[in-house]
Design brief:
- The protein has two domains: 2-74, Ubiquitin-like (UB roll) (Roll); 84-153, [2Fe-2S]-binding domain (DNA polymerase, domain 1, Orthogonal Bundle), CATH 1.10.150.
- The longest helix is centred in the last third of the chain and has 16 residues, at 138-153.
- α3 crosses α6 (138-153) and α4 (101-114) packs across α5.
- It has a five-stranded mixed sheet.
- It is an alpha+beta fold.
- The protein has helices at 22-28, 62-65, 84-92, 101-114, 120-127, 138-153; strands spanning 2-7, 10-15, 47-50, 53-56, 69-71.
């Protein structure tokens, strides 16, 4: 089957199997910034923003996402023009192996859009479902706080 998608602001038309999940369709079409973790919706590594909502792309049939807006971490910033959240993750050292980082950044992006000055409990809740095996989350929390400060003061 075929479907049209709006990925990071650009229209794309892709062919895929009727039972294909969004994760596989994205990766098969060059969006390798979306990572395959557990494939069961438990680790959060495959998270994308679908129509403004953070979802695990391994749990979404591609056909159900057709015609919708999808944002990956590449859609909010780049290596040459990083989003303040991406920059904060680098500066705080919250990127150890980097496998969970794209999805973590998207979770923080969604959080800070709704809650510009989150408490630690709000950060914890927003990151629940995004597993990191490297950092112990301390540096990730530091990065979230740094990004929140910068975004609220437009540093």
């Amino acid at each position: 089957m075929k479907g049209s998608f709006i990925v990071n602001g650009k229209k794309a038309e892709w062919s895929f199997a009727p039972d294909a999940v969004l994760l596989d369709v994205l990766r098969n079409n060059g969006h390798t910034e979306v990572h395959r973790g557990c494939g069961e919706g438990e680790c959060g590594a495959c998270a994308v923003i679908l129509e403004g909502r953070l979802v695990n792309s391994c749990q979404v049939f591609a056909a159900s996402a057709a015609g919708q807006k999808i944002t990956t971490v590449a859609g909010i910033g780049s290596i040459h023009s990083p989003h303040p959240i991406q920059q904060a993750f680098v500066e705080a050292g919250a990127i150890q192996c980097g496998f969970c980082t794209p999805a973590m950044i998207l979770a923080v992006f969604c959080l800070l859009q709704k809650t510009p000055n989150p408490t630690d409990d709000e950060i914890r809740k927003a990151l629940d479902g995004n597993l990191c095996r490297c950092t112990g989350y301390v540096k990730i929390f530091e990065a979230v706080r740094l990004a929140a400060r910068r975004m609220s003061s437009n540093e």
